[in-house]
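Protein modeling request. Please complete all fields; requests missing the sequence field cannot be processed.
Requester role: graduate student
Desired output: 3D structure, token encoding
Chains: 1
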Amino acid sequence: MIGPNLSELLPDPVLTNVATDTWKNGGWVADRLAPVKRVPKDKYRWATWDASVLDVTYEAVRSPGARANMVPRPAKTWSEGVIKESALRVEYSQEDIDNSISPDEPRVTGTQRIVNALQYLVEKAIHTKYLASGFAAGNKEAAAAHWHESTTYIQSDIEDAKMKFFKRTGIEANYLLMPRHIWPIFAASSEIKTLRVYTEPGLLAKGLPEGPIFGLQLIVPGARYDTLPTGTYTPAFVWTDNDVWIGYSPTLNGGTWDGVAPCAFGQFEATLLGESPFAVREYQSPYFAEDKTYIITADFRRTAETINAEYAYAITAVTA
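Delivered output (320 residues):
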């Protein structure tokens, strides 16, 4: 029996780059909603300001000879977390190489398969944090009417949510998160069609709108999975909720998150090879002389946290 040599234990730079580039593709929205902060160690910290940052009425008039009136310093709470490591592997044989158009095809597609599996897990983790059932009463409200009904109050629902979001955070929301199955209901409603027909030329030739909606960037997650992987092909969306959300993400238009800028949810990531969170390795099976099998493994180190739940607001029950 043989084992991996030193060169096989080191991350493969080519496959690691494949993993990094693959992560940027697809209909995944987790990294847009929950910005990523890269940290040099497995342990990290973040701060949350409490309600004392809001202005209140303080006694400011000073009596002769008295000291200046004291204003309490805004307080913040520090939280800590630890990076969690995920690791997956794929295997392919010499026969796979022989039957491929390119000898690199099995190793590249194997790496991409690992990345897609990790993307799905990250998407599920962020989706779980958006479940309206976990939102405080002050951070959600039911739509005035179902958006598929003949009479709707869609613009009113969204504007009311924006107002309440600003009242609680002091920041204007910058995105509208709408599950893919909600979009046809939204687009087909008489209320929205009437608004769009006067503002969007060539409406029939368009799908999702190119610009903002009611001042918010539209985010429509498209992540899917097979609900019966060992049976009849049954695709489903990850985001199946009958709710929509507004919120604020500091990196929605690009840039990086410093771990301080306000957001509802954030992700902390430890880099493993230069600027990549991946470490992809390839080596021969210990029984290679018999099975002619190659093994690709990928380590990925990232953890999602709730930073400040005030920065996401749910409009629930927009459809039944």
